[in-house]
Specification:
- It is a single chain.
- The chain is of the alpha/beta class and 398 residues long.
- It has a domain of 112 residues: Aspartate Aminotransferase, domain 1 (Alpha-Beta Complex).
- Helices cover 43% and strands 15% of the residues.
- The strands form four sheets. The protein has an eight-stranded mixed sheet, with helices on both faces.
- Strand 4, helix 6 and strand 5 form a beta-alpha-beta unit.
- The longest helix has 25 residues.
- The mean pLDDT is 90.
- Bound molecules: pyridoxal-5'-phosphate.
C-alpha cells in the first residue's frame, strides 16, 4: 500500500551534491530574509526553537509572554527555557490563531511580550497585535515556523514582529536551521553574542540529518521507507530518555554551514513548492468543507498551508489511528514524534508551573478534535483518497 506521507523534505541526490560541493554564501540567505521581512538584521540559527530562545534572551527582560495554547510544545519551550512565564490566551473561532481582544484584557505589569504563532499557516491578526503591543509597550515576537509564504492583509508574515523567527525546514525544505530577524541592532548583537557561546552542531548530527532528509524524500519506495522507520525508532527511543525542558540546551547549537548551503542551493525551487502546496491546501479545504468537516478559515489572510488542520465532532485520537491504518499519515499537533495525540499543555508537567490561563473556551472546543492531514506530497488523487477514507471512517455521523 502506498503511504500518503505527512511530510517530505524534497531533498534529492542533486540537492545533496549542490549542498556539499557548492559554497553558497550566508549573505545570500540573509538578503533573502531581509527582503522578505523588511528587517535590517538577520541571524542564521540552528532551528526556529533556538531563534525563539535567542529572541527572549536578547530582549534582556523577564516576565509574562502572551501566546496561544493551540500549538506543539517546541513552539513554547523557548519561553520557559529562557526564564519566562506563559499566559495562555484563547484562540479565535475562525482561523484558530490567538484572539487579540483577550490579550488586552489580561495584560499586567509583568507582561513583556506577545508570541504570535501562525498556526496551520494562517497568520495571526498582526495589525491588532501590533497595536496592542505598542499601546502596552510589549515586544511582539512572530513565530513564523508555520507561516513562511503567508500574508495578512497583503503583508508577508515576519514583517510585523519586533523579532521574527523562521525555520529552514518545514516550508523551506532544508536539512536544518532557523532564522532570527529584527530591526533592533542592540538585540541582534546580543543574540549573536549569546549564540557564539553555543557549541557547533556536530558532524555526526549533520550527517544524520542529511541521511534522514534523503530517506524521507524517497519513502514512496518501500525498502527506503523501511530503513527510514528503523532510524526513526532508534532516534525516538533516544529522545524519550531526556527531559525536553531541562535539556533544552541540546538544541542550542551554532548552525552547520551545510544547513545554510542546502537552503541556498534551492532558494529558486522553494517558492515553487510553496505555491504548489497553497493550491493543494485550498482545494483540500474546499473539498472537506463541502463534506462538513470543520476547517480553519480567514477573510483577512491567506494561509501558507504549511500544516493542514481540521476537526470533526469525534476525538481525534482514534480517527488519526484509522487514517494511519488506511495509509494516510495524519497526526494530532506534534510532528516530530508522530504523536497520535498531544495532551493539552496545561496538563503537561513540563508546563504546569510556568503557565497562567483563564477562559479558553474556543481552544477547549477545538483541541481534542484536531487532526493534521498530510499535504506536502499531495496531488489530486491523494486528496481524493483522503476524502474517501475520512468519509468511510466517520460514516454518516456528519
Ligand atoms: C516546528 C515549529 C517550531 C520549531 O521549528 P524548528 O526549526 O524545528 O525548531 C516552532 N514553532 C512552531 C509553531 C512550529 O510549528
Amino acid at each position: 500500500m502506498q503511504m500518503i506521507q505527512y511530510y517530505s523534505p524534497h531533498f534529492g541526490v542533486i540537492d545533496l551534491l549542490k549542498t556539499v560541493f557548492f559554497r553558497n554564501s550566508e549573505e545570500k540567505l540573509c538578503d533573502y530574509f531581509r527582503i522578505l521581512t523588511g528587517k535590517k538584521y538577520v541571524l542564521i540559527t540552528s532551528s526556529c526553537r533556538s531563534a525563539l530562545y535567542l529572541a527572549y534572551k536578547a530582549i534582556g527582560k523577564k516576565g509574562i509572554v502572551h501566546t496561544s495554547p493551540l500549538t506543539c510544545k517546541i513552539a513554547l519551550l523557548p519561553i520557559i527555557a529562557s526564564g519566562n512565564q506563559i499566559y495562555f490566551n484563547d484562540i479565535k473561532n475562525d482561523d484558530w490563531t490567538i484572539n487579540p481582544s483577550t490579550i488586552s484584557l489580561t495584560i499586567s505589569e509583568e507582561s513583556i511580550a506577545i508570541q504570535a504563532i501562525h498556526f496551520g499557516g494562517f497568520p495571526c491578526d498582526m495589525p491588532s497585535l501590533r497595536e496592542i503591543a505598542d499601546a502596552h509597550n510589549l515586544i511582539l515576537i512572530e513565530d513564523c515556523a508555520q507561516g513562511f509564504g503567508a500574508f495578512n492583509s497583503g503583508i508577508a508574515t515576519g514583517r510585523f514582529g519586533d523579532i521574527s523567527c523562521f525555520t529552514l525546514t518545514k516550508n523551506l525544505y532544508g536539512i536544518g536551521g532557523g532564522v532570527f530577524v529584527t530591526n533592533n541592532e542592540e538585540w541582534y548583537i546580543h543574540a549573536k553574542n549569546i549564540q557564539s557561546i553555543f557549541k557547533r552542531e556536530t558532524n555526526i548530527k549533520v550527517i544524520y540529518r542529511i541521511i534522514q532528509a534523503l530517506l524521507s524524500s524517497f519513502r514512496k519506495y518501500e525498502p527506503v521507507n523501511c530503513i527510514y522507520n528503523i532510524l526513526k525508532k532508534v532516534n525516538r527511543n533516544k529522545h524519550q530518555s531526556y527531559d525536553l525542558y531541562y535539556n533544552f540546551s541540546i538544541f542550542l547549537t551554532k548552525p552547520s554551514k551545510l544547513y545554510i548551503s542546502s537552503v541556498c542551493s534551492r532558494l529558486n525551487k522553494i517558492q515553487e513548492l510553496v505555491n504548489k502546496r497553497k493550491i493543494i491546501g485550498m482545494s483540500l479545504a474546499q473539498a472537506l468543507s463541502n463534506l462538513g468537516v470543520v476547517i480553519s478559515y480567514s477573510t483577512s489572510s491567506s494561509s501558507s498551508y504549511t500544516k493542514f488542520f481540521c476537526t470533526t465532532q469525534n476525538k481525534s485520537k482514534n480517527l488519526i489511528q484509522s487514517l494511519n491504518k488506511a495509509g494516510i499519515e495524519a497526526m494530532h499537533l506534534e510532528h516530530k514524534d508522530k504523536a497520535y495525540y498531544q495532551e493539552k499543555l496545561i496538563y503537561d508537567p513540563l508546563f504546569t508551573n510556568h503557565i497562567i490561563y483563564k477562559d479558553l473556551d474556543f481552544y477547549d472546543k477545538i483541541h481534542d478534535n484536531l487532526i493534521s492531514l498530510p499535504l506536502n506530497d499531495c496531488d489530486v488523487s491523494s486528496i481524493d483518497k483522503i476524502i474517501r477514507v475520512l468519509k468511510d471512517i466517520i460514516g454518516n455521523k456528519w
